Amino acid sequence: QVQLVESGGGLVQAGGSLRLSCAASGRTFSNYIMGWFRQAPGKEREFVAAITRSAGSTYYADSVKGRFTISRDNAKNTVYLQMNSLKPEDTAVYYCAATRGYGLPREATNFGSWGQGTQVTVSS
Question: Which of 40, 41, 3 minimizes the C-alpha distance to 22?
């Protein structure tokens, strides 16, 4: 399995921006579809965004579409999540995930490798 380490979380005011990074190691990064999920206290983990192996396709949850952008740099084995216009409801632990599957997976069960998570807190 690929090992994943997230960074870039923190505390930001509503309307602000953060960029999350996820560094991968252990396997060929370009073989994986990469995704971001989040989990707020008392809620289930939910899909945020994902990007295909060559970055040819990206897709998003409706709640973040137009505000968040996922990207990847296969030379640096890193995937990013640029988060703009943040809202208090974006507060959650954000997880990076990887899958060698196909298509446009959105379910957490489709992803076999996970990072430890990074906290994002948006104050009102």
Answer: 3
